[in-house]
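Replying to the earlier thread about multi-chain prediction with a worked example.

Input:
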Amino acid sequence: MANLVIDSREIPQYSVESVLDAVIWGDALEVLPKLPDEMADMVFIDPPYFLQLPQKRLLRWKVKTIVEGVDEDWDKFESFESYDQFIITILKEVKRIMKARATIWCIGTYHNIHRIGKLMQDLGFWILNDVIWVKTNAMPNWLNVRFTNATETLIWAVKDKSVKGYTFNAEIARRFSKGKLAINVWELPICIGEERLKDGQGKKLHPTQKPKALLERVILISTKEGDIVFDPLAGTGTTGVVAKCLNRHFVMIEKRQEYVEACLKRLSQEITQPALWRSDEK
Amino acid sequence: MANLVIDSREIPQYSVESVLDAVIWGDALEVLPKLPDEMADMVFIDPPYFLQLPQKRLLRWKVKTIVEGVDEDWDKFESFESYDQFIITILKEVKRIMKARATIWCIGTYHNIHRIGKLMQDLGFWILNDVIWVKTNAMPNWLNVRFTNATETLIWAVKDKSVKGYTFNAEIARRFSKGKLAINVWELPICIGEERLKDGQGKKLHPTQKPKALLERVILISTKEGDIVFDPLAGTGTTGVVAKCLNRHFVMIEKRQEYVEACLKRLSQEITQPALWRSDEK
DNA sequence: CAAAGTCCTGAATCATATG
DNA sequence: ACATATGATTCAGGACTTT
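Result:
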């Protein structure tokens, strides 16, 4: 079902055909330059959030269990500058890979989304909206020293100010927000339960797996059937899975072996009708 | 009732006493360096958003009226770079003027808030939260080419990562969001009706007047009675008016004469109990 | 006077066709 | 490249007018 492309130094350049509906196993920084110009109709990027969590573990008060935060190598950067460099490098390549009327979505929290937004503007991207994902089941802030952060922000943009005629399916967008208008606020639970992938030990496989219902909204609103959706930092591949469920093509890049394996497994098992996980009922 | 301080070149330095509960009529860039270190317990900044609206007017099709967008000199900048310089200059001075455990709020939309957030991080500010203001009566996007932008974002931060013991009144914060937790999402209407200031011709005096209910939330949650709230870009003075209503002190700077006059008038007329405009009922 | 209907407008980076 | 004309007509809330 799913195509696997193992990146290597011998490969100088990819054709669209060779990566269509494929997971490319490799480092995005190395793979991106090999992808063709104007390949993608839409790009979804879920970059590391650079959370800068303290080393000491957070203990739940009552049950005395440790909160499993994000403690992956891929979320560690030496400084804001090195984080910015990572983002800039990817965004520049992505811009080249976007079709003229393609749009791009970047998701993040207050830790990183503002950096990304400013860097996008500096690179010439023209922001169309930010969309607020209100998580209906966010983890409370027990210490009461700040608000419970229940939101993530998606920035939606085109390549530059002059772009017209990008895809925006307004009728569909109206379904996903409260009220009659297509408002830039979405209420959705975070990914838990059966949808959440586990490793051999029953631990969550990926710390920030995005819900399929979120990608459904992104893809339905900003692409047409047959379009190519590109995700250069695929993780466990929610983008590609949802794209296929909705009759779109995907191209994904992922570096970590266990995530690539998860992508392939999901692509062979989860290509179903969206009915089970969609959430567009008002 | 309200103190007016007219800034001039002869004034080299202000004492706290000389500006307490005063509107300083002058250019923030000139006044800020004259204000004392560690004066403020909390800072609220509502900077120009740099909207970059097109020159052509937007016409309502049926009623043939023009949408009165923001077309003020103070929202015009030559480039992102010059906008950034304006923000950086103000933020640096503000940081000096903040007490060690003070907090700062900056409000904006996707046009500018990401720039501000990144610049704040680069200046060492440590973001505690972003708070999403969901506007219940935002203007629709009736051409259906993007989402109706119904939100503004408030970034809430301390001077640096090490700051502890800042004021966060969690009990009050819980009242302002849905559910039992103090969530970072506030639903509030934009400022219209009787609260909205008009000029002699019945036109809105300020294009972006903030509702008192918004400032009430900010001030109640992040200050104590008797604290000094500082607003270097005061506009029509909502910050000071609400501060006085809630038994806090204020210091405000405003450049434009008609806004200063509005501040003084409001400070002499609107210092009432908050009951009339507050909106903390669940 | 109350109720119902009309009109106006809000931090907006809102489109397309023709000349 | 500009300027100008035309058009597919959304929602909430307050002010005002009519019934």
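The CA atoms of residues 213 and 279 of chain A lie 6 Å apart.

Feel free to reuse this layout for your own posts.
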